[in-house]
Amino acid sequence: MAHAHTHPVKRYSGLMDWLTTVDHKKIGILYMIAGGFFFLVGGLEAILIRVQLWKPLNNFVSADTYNELLTMHGTTMIFLAAMPLLFALMNAVIPLQIGARDVAFPFVNSLGFWTFLFGGILLNVSWFTGGAPDAGWTSYAPLAGTTYSGDHGVDYYVLGLQIAGIGTLIGGINFLVTIINMRAPGMTFMRMPMFTWAAFITSALILFAFPALAVGLAALMFDRLFDANFFDPSGGGNAVLWEHIFWIFGHPEVYILILPAFGVISEVISTFSRKRLFGYSSMVFATILIGFLGFMVWAHHMFTVGLGPVANALFSIATMLIAVPTGIKIFNWLFTMWGGSIKFTSANLFAVGFIPTFVMGGVTGVMLAAAPADFQYHDSYFVVAHFHYVIVGGLILGIFSGLHYWWPKMFGRVLNETLGKLTFWTFFIGFHLTFFIQHFLGLLGMPRRIWTYLDGLGFNEMNMISTVGAFLMGFGTIFFLLNVVITAFKPADAPADPWEDGRTLEWTIPSPAPEYNFAQTPLVRGYDAYWKEKMDGHKGMTPAEPIGPIHMPSPSILPFFMGAGLFIAGLGFMYSHDWGELFGLIKTGYAVGIFGLLILFGCMFLRSVIDDHGFHIEEEEILKDLGGKA
């Protein structure tokens, strides 16, 4: 029997719908737009860096501006572009892959997005207020202390990342709970799609790694704003302590970024080879092992610090061990393609291009893991090349692959294949031109993070080639944006399974997915649940429940204001010493900071006293949707 709306909820439209939404699919799109914007900002910073380095003794930007560009490029790409683009795919796909109607905590999901966005905006406001952070994306002490970074640049880094990090942390916890508690009947852990497994391990890494960063940033904030001395040796502090704290977060972070990309590659290669993923259980255990070992290798970033031969040897061995589970994955992808009926769609081109590129990044990683050799490679362009082979050649190719693959499920439109292939070839060739040659620059002795270099050192031609490659990558990104715009004007008429070889649950429902995802929760009877039903001659999934009214959470504007409150508080406390007194009573900065916190706590109070009764989607509406798509 249909239930009446016991608590009718205002359903918004237009901009208000996006500001208040708690629907995981819309939050995924918001993450994609915000992450895409920051990706363009970070890419522009990278191109400016390459323009400065294209010839010796260039003065395109000043040394100070170069340091700011370098710091902001790294920070923006890692924290504000890569993470949210992965969260976009995770939000859009994970609940669909496990047969859930939404994530476990839709309100918290929305809060995670808005805190990330306001943290990212706070960090980038620094460009317009007299100086961006300039201590490198790792912000090493004592360079990041007030002695060497006296302006507010590093304050923006500290507070912006703290606020954005809250969003990532609560997002990770949300996905953990969702995957553990909300899988469809029959979906055991060993029947979960590989992308869901990767997101699960990633979320566990976020849970354990991000608190370390929060502690480090809090300590650095106390050093800078309140004259503490955690990292100031003259006051009894320890500068190397920051390196330990940063890399205990920073190395798992690399796996937080790359594991979801591994998951994407597994899905795409399996679909477009028309084959079950080779060695599924070994893939699962390799993923778990990578996550576990990822926490045991942080000091390989610190071989030259002077930890001693025992520590260096142990971390060297642990680092090399990670190559084993990663190698298992590489071979499993190759064996999945072996004998398959391969289709080279845009998504699959990015996935196949990912494999040799990531292998190269892994090989240079093993080279850097040898502590004596690392003394030579350290702080040279060899490290820059290695890092970008892993993050751009791995992660960004994986993200592009996932976007092309799941675009029809997110928007109901298939991206243009010709433009997709143009994106791949320009980006892929540009990438290798940019970074392959940097290995040799590093071996020739070009240090990283230098603003300019002398003529006659043998760096000139290689830097020129690198800059040309960077522009090619820029063109690739422009082709992708062009593809998005052109596709947006097409009718949203993609079929439920546009690739015709969909294997997992998301391809069983209409494109784009309805608000409630599944009219009836599906019954999962094996790994590659949808493929199994197809092979057994069924048109779709067997439902695990009858059609009935579906209870959905209410939209809320509170997460938006909570993010804004944190932004205002961060800005206020940062300028606590700079802005004058308010009515002769309290410094204006403190007043603004307290006002921001009051907004935050006021919203938390409202959330705790006003019950969210949600709303029902009635049987008639669901049946009409099903009829309309039949």
What would the keywords be for this entry?
630 residues, mainly alpha, Cytochrome C Oxidase, Chain A, two-stranded antiparallel ribbon, two-stranded antiparallel sheet, 19 helices, 2% strand, disordered N terminus
Account of the protein in words:
The chain has helices at 15-20, 24-53, 63-97, 106-125, 153-181, 194-226, 239-272, 280-293, 309-321, 323-337, 346-369, 371-377, 381-411, 417-443, 460-488, 529-535, 558-574, 588-609, 619-629, and strands at 550-552, 581-582, 586-587, 615-617. The protein is an all-alpha fold. The chain has one domain: Cytochrome C Oxidase, Chain A, CATH 1.20.210. It has a two-stranded antiparallel ribbon. It is globular.
Using the alpha-carbon principal axes, give the shape: globular
What profile does the largest beta sheet have? 2 strands, antiparallel
What is the strand arrangement across the widest sheet?
1-4
Q: Figure out the total of helices.
A: 19
> What oligomeric state do these chains adopt?
single chain
Question: Could you give the count of β-strands?
Answer: 4
Assign the CATH class. Answer: Mainly Alpha
Task: Give the rounded overall mean pLDDT.
Answer: 93
The CATH fourth-level homologous superfamily = Cytochrome c oxidase-like, subunit I domain
Protein structure class = mainly alpha
Helix content: 55-70%
Concise synopsis of the structure shown:
With 630 residues, the chain is mainly alpha-helical.
